[in-house]
C-alpha cells in the first residue's frame, strides 16, 4: 500500500476475528512503533502484547478490575468479553523518563504516535485494528494488575485482528483545520 493511500484511508475496524497477526506482522507493528517522533530518543512507551492463553488471563483481569472499580453487575459480566473481541490485544503504556528537557506530555505524545503507527501498520498489512480506552485505561487497579507503575499511563488498548467485514472507509471530513496566516 502506498503511503499516501494509507494516510488518506486509514480506518478503525471494531469487528475483528482470527487469525491474528503473524509474528512477522507483529514485528512490523513493533518496528513502526519504534519509528515515531521521540524527543531525545527516550522511547517512553512499551507495548504489552496479549494473544492466545494470555488473552484469557487478561479477561480475568478485566473482570477483577470491573469489580474493584465498582462497576455494575452487567458491566462486570461484559468485562470478561472485552479483551476477547480480537485475537490480539496490545496494551500501550507510557514509560516516562526523568528528563527535564522532555516534559511528560511530550512523552505521552510519542506513546500516542506509537499507537497510531501500529494501527497504520496493521491497516497497511490488510489487518484491522481499533484503539480503545475507557474506564479500564484510567484504572489504577488495571495498572496494578498489569504490573505497570501507577506513575505511568495506559495510552490505549489496540485491538488487532482480521477484519470480519471489509473495513469501511469513512468519507473524508468535510471541514478545514488549516488556517492560512
Ligand atoms: C485516545 C482514543 C481513545 C479511544 N477510545 C475508544 C473507546 O474506548 N471505544 C471506542 O469505541 N472508540 C474509541 N476511540 C475511537 C476509535 O479508536 C476510532 O478512532 C473511532 O471509532 C473512529 O473510527 P476511525 O478511526 O475509523 O475514524 C478512541 C480513539 C482515541 C484516539
Q: Which regions are unreliable across 5 or more consecutive residues at pLDDT < 50?
A: none
Structural class: alpha+beta
**Strand percentage:** 15-25%
Q: CATH homologous superfamily name?
A: NADH Oxidase
Nearest-integer average pLDDT: 97
The CATH class name reads Alpha Beta
Portion in helices: 40-55%
Overall domain count: 1
N-to-C order of helices and strands: HEHEHHEHEHHE
* Number of beta strands: 5
Provide structural commentary.
This protein has about 180 residues and is of the alpha+beta class. It has one domain (about 15-165): NADH Oxidase. The protein is built from seven helices and five strands, in the order αβαβααβαβααβ. It has helices at about 5-10, 25-35, 55-70, 75-80, 105-125, 135-140, 140-145, and strands at about 15, 45-50, 90-95, 130, 155-165. Strands 1, 2, 3, 4 and 5 form a five-stranded antiparallel beta sheet that branches. Helix 3 runs antiparallel to helix 7. About 30% of the residues are buried. The mean pLDDT is about 95. Bound molecules: flavin mononucleotide. Flavin mononucleotide binds near residues 11 and 170.
Short summary:
Helix content is 40%, strand content 17%. By secondary structure, the protein is of the alpha+beta class.
Q: What order do the helices and strands come in, and which of them pair?
A:
Blueprint: H1 3-9, E1 16-17, H2 23-33, E2 45-51, H3 53-68, H4 73-79, E3 88-94, H5 104-124, E4 128-132, H6 135-138, H7 140-146, E5 154-163
Antiparallel strand pairs: 1-5, 2-3, 3-5, 4-5
Helix pairs in contact: 2-5, 3-4, 3-7
The protein binds flavin mononucleotide.
Flavin mononucleotide (FMN) is lined by residues 11-12, 130-134, 156, 170.
Amino acid at each position: 500500500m502506498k503511503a499516501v493511500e494509507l494516510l488518506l484511508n486509514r480506518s478503525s475496524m471494531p469487528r475483528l476475528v482470527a487469525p491474528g497477526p503473524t509474528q512477522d506482522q507483529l514485528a512490523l507493528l513493533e518496528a513502526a512503533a519504534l519509528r515515531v517522533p521521540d524527543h531525545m530518543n527516550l522511547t517512553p512507551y512499551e507495548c504489552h502484547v496479549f494473544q492466545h492463553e494470555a488473552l484469557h488471563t487478561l479477561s480475568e483481569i478485566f473482570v477483577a478490575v470491573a469489580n474493584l472499580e465498582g462497576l455494575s453487575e452487567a458491566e462486570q459480566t461484559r468485562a470478561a468479553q472485552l479483551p476477547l473481541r480480537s485475537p490480539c490485544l496490545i496494551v500501550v503504556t507510557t514509560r516516562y523518563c526523568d528528563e527535564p528537557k522532555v516534559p511528560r506530555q511530550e512523552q505521552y505524545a510519542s506513546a500516542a504516535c506509537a499507537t497510531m503507527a501500529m494501527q497504520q501498520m496493521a491497516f497497511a498489512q490488510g489487518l484491522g485494528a481499533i484503539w480503545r480506552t475507557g474506564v479500564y485505561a484510567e484504572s489504577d487497579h488495571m495498572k496494578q494488575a498489569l504490573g505497570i507503575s501507577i506513575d505511568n499511563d495506559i495510552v490505549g488498548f489496540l485491538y488487532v485482528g482480521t477484519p470480519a467485514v471489509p473495513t469501511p472507509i469513512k468519507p473524508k471530513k468535510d471541514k478545514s483545520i488549516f488556517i492560512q496566516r
